[in-house]
């Protein structure tokens, strides 16, 4: 695989590749396109942005459906010189509007179905629609935090302060990280990869989509919210699957996993019990536990599961760092048993949009050492995950920051204080629960229903307890 380190080289690669193919499964229908068609779709979107006289350097929010259309919009926005900010397609309208406000305006890509909702909130449509999509301009009065040079991508991540923030990554970094990942798991053009992870998450975008495109493999874009994954998989002889610890056995039948040659699991800590189950189901396959974070590009380290070490340590090691990545432990420690993981990688982020203090807190200097906030302990020269420095709930591989949820809950009348914390869950690892202090009895069913206007459903506490004072142990 040749080094492809910029957008122009990537588009040339797509145009010149006659073997690779992407299949888009939508509501059970299957359509496939060759890689040159992706470059063509990017060019069509570039011309559409030019026709609308969109100002280059401006941010544009793109809801990243797992499908061909999202790929074309993303590449076209980059080719035109916009700053694409990737969001979950099911993000509530109010939350999307809040993100637009926080980044200082710009544009938003909406479907024909959602466009009227945004128009009611003061957005304006630019020109005619393009297929099923419309380019909408944010309400007047917003001032962009900054104009961006071409080639940058923004990936939102709810900060621990409760304010949505955007991680800025050069697209060249994402390409390089995808190449590093593909080499680590030995992905090549003979593979067929199931692309079922959200494309607004760096793991699904980089380790899934971009890695598949770079090596010239076949990819199957599969949105599990709309398609029965078990039925869809019957149509393809896939070699490679991806998942998180909480969903891999739910999404993929054990008998199907037994047929593939490679499985990549990331996004959260893998427990020994799951690792052993996967090894039993996939006796002739390679199973990789992956570690990373969006700020790092995202992929950092990979470990191929080995039954003997799992049995010995009863834990999964961090694994081998990718090429040109250096891992070390910081001087800070917790209880004298573990230390914070530090990362030096050529694909480290530029920083957090509009948050210099937050950037300096995790990056010593531009392109310097990245503080992860993850604590590890060392045993026999191997690193094992031991917890997180900051308050965070990991639900099925998705980071939920309690302070962000609390900030939304506190907007509602009669609530004096709230504390959101995580509770162990057999399938998801953790789920959010909440303690409320209020002036009167709160109907939590009504509150939860209202919260769905502002928060993803995964962020809404599964249990509520109204108390006079917080239990003494919950803040520990």
What does this structure look like?
The chain is an alpha/beta fold and 476 residues long. It has 2 domains: 1-390, 3-Layer(aba) Sandwich (Rossmann fold), CATH 3.40.50; 393-466, GMP Synthetase, Chain A, domain 3. It is 29% helix and 31% strand. It has 15 helices and 26 strands. The strands form 7 sheets. A 5-stranded mixed sheet has the order 4-3-5-7-6. Strands 12-13-14-15-16 form a 5-stranded mixed sheet. It has a 4-stranded mixed sheet with strand order 2-1-11-10. α1 (7-16) crosses α2 (35-51). This is AMP-binding enzyme family protein. It comes from Burkholderia gladioli (Pseudomonas marginata). Pfam families: AMP-binding. Residues 48-353 form the AMP-dependent synthetase/ligase domain.
Q: Topology of this structure?
A:
Layout: H1 7-16, E1 21-26, E2 29-34, H2 35-51, E3 59-63, H3 68-80, E4 83-87, H4 93-102, E5 107-111, H5 115-120, E6 124-125, E7 133-137, E8 152-158, E9 164-170, H6 171-185, E10 192-195, H7 202-215, E11 218-222, H8 229-233, E12 240-243, H9 248-251, H10 254-257, E13 262-265, H11 272-281, E14 286-292, E15 299-304, H12 307-313, E16 320-321, E17 326-334, E18 338-344, E19 351-352, H13 356-362, E20 370-379, E21 382-388, E22 393-395, E23 398-400, H14 402-409, E24 415-425, E25 429-438, H15 444-451, E26 463-466
Parallel strand pairs: 1-11, 3-4, 3-5, 10-11, 12-13, 13-14, 25-26
Antiparallel strand pairs: 1-2, 5-7, 6-7, 8-9, 9-19, 14-15, 15-16, 17-18, 18-20, 20-21, 22-23, 24-25
């Amino acid at each position: 695989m040749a080094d492809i380190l910029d957008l122009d080289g990537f588009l040339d690669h797509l145009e010149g590749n006659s073997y690779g193919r992407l299949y888009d499964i939508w509501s059970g229908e299957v359509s496939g396109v060759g890689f040159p068609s992706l470059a063509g779709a990017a060019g069509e979107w570039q011309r559409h942005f030019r026709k609308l006289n969109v100002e280059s350097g401006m941010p544009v929010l793109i809801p990243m459906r797992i499908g061909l259309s999202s790929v074309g919009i993303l590449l076209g926005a980059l080719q035109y010189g916009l700053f694409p900010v990737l969001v979950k397609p099911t993000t509530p309208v109010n939350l999307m509007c809040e993100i637009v406000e926080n980044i200082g305006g710009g544009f938003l890509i909406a479907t024909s179905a959602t466009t009227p909702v945004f128009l009611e909130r003061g957005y304006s449509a630019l020109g005619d629609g393009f297929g099923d999509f419309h380019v909408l301009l944010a309400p007047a009065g917003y001032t962009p935090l900054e104009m961006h040079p071409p080639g940058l991508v923004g990936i939102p991540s709810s900060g621990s302060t409760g304010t949505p923030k955007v991680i800025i990554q050069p697209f060249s970094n994402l390409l390089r990280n995808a190449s590093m990942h593909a080499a680590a798991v030995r992905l090549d053009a003979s593979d067929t990869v199931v692309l079922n992870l959200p494309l607004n998450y760096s793991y699904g975008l980089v380790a899934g989509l971009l890695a598949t495109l770079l090596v010239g493999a076949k990819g199957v874009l599969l949105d599990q919210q709309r398609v029965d994954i078990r039925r869809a998989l019957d149509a393809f002889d896939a070699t490679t699957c991806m998942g998180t610890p909480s969903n891999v056995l739910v999404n993929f039948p054990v008998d199907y996993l037994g047929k593939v040659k490679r499985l990549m699991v990331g996004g959260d800590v893998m427990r020994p019990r799951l690792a052993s189950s996967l090894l039993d189901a996939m006796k002739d396959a390679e199973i990789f536990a992956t570690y990373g974070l969006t700020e790092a590009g995202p992929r950092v380290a990979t470990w191929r599961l080995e039954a003997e070490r799992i049995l010995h340590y009863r834990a999964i090691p961090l694994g081998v760092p990718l090429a040109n990545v250096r891992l070390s432990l910081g001087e800070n420690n917790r209880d004298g048993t573990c230390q914070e993981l530090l990362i030096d990688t050529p694909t480290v982020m530029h920083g957090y949009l509009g948050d210099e203090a937050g950037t300096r807190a995790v990056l010593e200097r531009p392109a310097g050492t990245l503080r992860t906030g993850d604590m590890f302990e060392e045993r026999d020269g191997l690193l094992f995950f031991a917890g997180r420095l900051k308050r965070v709930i990991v639900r099925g591989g998705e980071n939920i920051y309690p302070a962000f949820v609390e900030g939304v809950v506190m907007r509602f009348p009669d609530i004096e204080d709230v504390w959101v914390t995580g509770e162990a869950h057999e399938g998801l690892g953790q789920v959010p629960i909440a303690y409320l202090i209020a002036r009167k009895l709160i109907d939590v069913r009504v509150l939860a229903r209202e919260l769905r206007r502002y928060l993803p459903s995964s962020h809404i506490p599964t249990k509520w307890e109204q108390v006079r004072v917080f239990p003494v142990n919950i803040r520990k």
